[in-house]
Amino acid sequence: MSTGDLSLWRAADEIFDRLLDLPADEREAALAAMALDPVLEAHVRRLVAAHDRADGPLDPAGPDAELEGRCIGRWVLEDEIGRGGMSVVYRARTDEGGETRVAAIKLLTLGALVAGGVQRFKREQAILARLQHPHIAGLLDCGVTEDGTPWLAMPLVDGQPIDQWCDERNLGVGARVQLMLDVCDAVAYAHRNLVIHRDIKPSNVLVDREGYVRLLDFGIGGMLESRQAGMTLTRMLAWTPQYAAPEQFKLAPASTAMDVYGLGALLFRLLTGRPPREGPPDGQPVTLPSRACLDDDTATAPLRRAASKALRGDLDAIVLKALAPDPEDRYRSPDALARDLGNWLRDRPVRARGSGTFYRLRCFLRRHRAGVAGGIVLALVLGGGLAATLWQAERARAEAARATAVKDFLVELFESADPEVEAGRVPDTLTVLSRGAGRVHRELAGEPALAAELLHTIGRVQLHLGDYAASREQLLAAYELGRRHKLPAPARGRTLLQLGVLGIETGRYDDARDWLLRARDTLAGLKDAESRSALAYVHMYLGSVATSLGEHETALAELAQAEAIESTLEPDGRRRGHLRIHQAQSLRAAGRAREAWDVLREAVDRIPEPGIADLPLLTALGSVAGDLGRHEEAERYFRRVVETMRAAYPPGSPALATPLNNLSLAISARGRHREAEPVLREALALRRASVGSDSARLAPVLSNHGTMLMRLGRADEAVAAFDEALAAAEAGLGPLHERSLMVLSFKCQAQALAGRADETAACESQLLARLPRRAAMPGARQAADDNLRRLALARLLLGQPGPALALLGRMSPAPETDAPDRARLQAEAWRLLAHALQGLSEPAAAAALAAHLPALADGSFEQADLRLALAAQARVSGDVATSEARLRELRTPFLEGEVPARVESMVARVRNLAPHPVKDGIDPRQRTGKR
């Protein structure tokens, strides 16, 4: 065989190697898409034909069922979940330290015996080993079996290809672009680690049930530092033709530009429903995404037109730049592409459109309509004289007429829901509002100002009822009407304000800030009292966002702005009360609880006889009292709120749900759990009746009820309550919201109290997997500490001090605050309790902890936990009498039979401890070196 023939067969062998990775029914299309030299293609086809014969010596093995149950390293193989010509993938499981983990194990098959198979597999191991990113399915483990077969373990991603995930949920353009930002981040990280993917396509980007993106399959990836020396023909041809860059068909050296093209192709698919082309490049320009949408036969004509309009302009330009035939014309990096997508999401100029003056001016006007409009109006007022006065009078008459029309429409809307009209079926408020929004869209297309005001009103009510998705839809529609028809700035500003409040309610603080800043720009400079009042609220909510993001100085500055505006307006008790509440929240978040108390007390003292409008102030005061451990005062404030509202509202009013919830928690904080539970049940029934069973607003009350059931020893009922609370929180807020994580941590405690050790471990694993994914979100560190503390208690309830200590050790250092950090004292108590359960005595630490007892309220969990820890430490030190005295003290504040179940559980564990005295402060086992 000549040297030329040998080279040809080697090239054919490498292509054949990659074809074996594909399912048999896809190999022909992949081979045709490669557009190979005819002679080379003939050699490849001969290899494929030989492989397809049933009697070949190296036929791929069968399903390998005998591997199920086999140990590979620390993993036990379970069922097969995937297979190609070169490798087979199994679901696998390992149990370490009482924790079960699952993974996907990838092993070579007999097909890997062809040239390059083992080397490529090892290259994939090397690539995955250097990539540790939350959006990349990286390497968990790797090794070689006893028979020399290489294997690697990766996270098992239970998800769907990104295009299917988006299509099944009918996601809008903005949500799809938001997912692409995560993909861009993962690819950019790979590039920073000198790794190119080269096969970005929907099936290699999975989205799990929680909406979390994972980039897969670096099997044909390459390392930039070795691309010149180690590049093979197989690796240059082993990609998916519909998503591959044009230069990949020319066997060009690998570059980051190939992945930028792949990202653009993936974005094209998400926006249009199809890839940018069906095969190799044919020299024709890529179709504009906005035009490609019009060819989608699966959507109705109105939907196609709406989708096309959303893509026209900026997104068209972004996609075409990413898909430029010449790599030099593409974005320089995935980060650059992500920046333009982010700019599009925020209505800012995108680099793909260039820097034309007209375009940038148009973007400026979109963001700063208020200032420009205000300038025009000012010029008209100064130059128009009498005409301006007449115009203002006409505008006032028009606004009065519109207000009457709004009132008439809403009255008619609820009258049309009369039971007699509905044949005996009484629709709930949310249904009535939804119907009303539909009528506005159908019947008021020719009256944009009236339609916008009605949609704003409906959206605002839906927001307060917890129907966040519907509220967003109506408020965005109102905003779009105002923008398109250049409606008056005050109306547009109020809608922007409500969109900001919606962002806060759903935990989307960056979105909230964007909307509120637009509201500020729109309302700034307006002199009418209503607009000035709205502007004060804008600054209040900007302060709330800053508080949530941990920006305490910014929060106080925004609230000072609100205070300055408030001082120029007619006195308004409701607005003033809201301002004081926001100020108190900011001070509490900054660890200045006593100042928050003073702010609220001063506001309440100025009110001769607090009425309905002042109840939010009393509620905030009760919350701060609870923060300071003054539970008796908290109960007094909450009881006053409930009594006032019962007198003012009809029986069964949903407005009573939150006050009753607060009152029940204050009663329980004083150790009277049996009295508190029916109060909380009433709150839960009212909330459920008003918002339904799947609203995020139901989650806090359900979670509180689960906690109450735990205190009463009804652990199985508590688990069910937390399951329902978790479903409501995740549906309305998402799985990474702090409310969802908190509910999940309480569910772990309930499972532990019920003795469900395996379920507790699985619940803990689920929560710990979510915490790193929330790390960049506001308040993440504090929320993580709270969740770790609750998980540690669950382990203690199971009698597992080692894992409990490990969880407590992951908490961040304690901050300095002016109020006793009761949560930190509780964590320290649990640490000492865990050491006692291990037989370790710490008399000095116990003495330091005992000094904090006087500051804690009688009957509080913090007080009970400190006494438990002190009793346990006394017992392992050999002082049984002191231990029993501590346990008697623990019971004294509680009413007969009302010692919380989890406290009773730990009392039993303490009494089972064996005395283990410490001499001279040194554990005797440490003297001998024994544990």
UniProtKB/TrEMBL annotation:
Natural source organism: Arenimonas caeni
Record keywords: ATP-binding, Kinase, Membrane, Nucleotide-binding, Transferase, Transmembrane, Transmembrane helix
Listed GO MF terms: ATP binding; protein serine/threonine kinase activity
InterPro entries: Kinase-like_dom_sf, Prot_kinase_dom, Protein_kinase_ATP_BS, Ser/Thr_kinase_AS, TPR-like_helical_dom_sf, TPR_rpt
Any matching Pfam family: TPR_12
Protein's name according to its UniProt entry: Protein kinase domain-containing protein
PROSITE patterns: PROTEIN_KINASE_ATP, PROTEIN_KINASE_DOM, PROTEIN_KINASE_ST
Residues annotated to bind ATP: K106
CDD domains, sorted: STKc_PknB_like
Transmembrane regions listed in the UniProt entry: 370-391
Residues covered by the Protein kinase domain: 75-345
SUPFAM superfamilies per the UniProt record, alphabetical: Protein kinase-like (PK-like), TPR-like
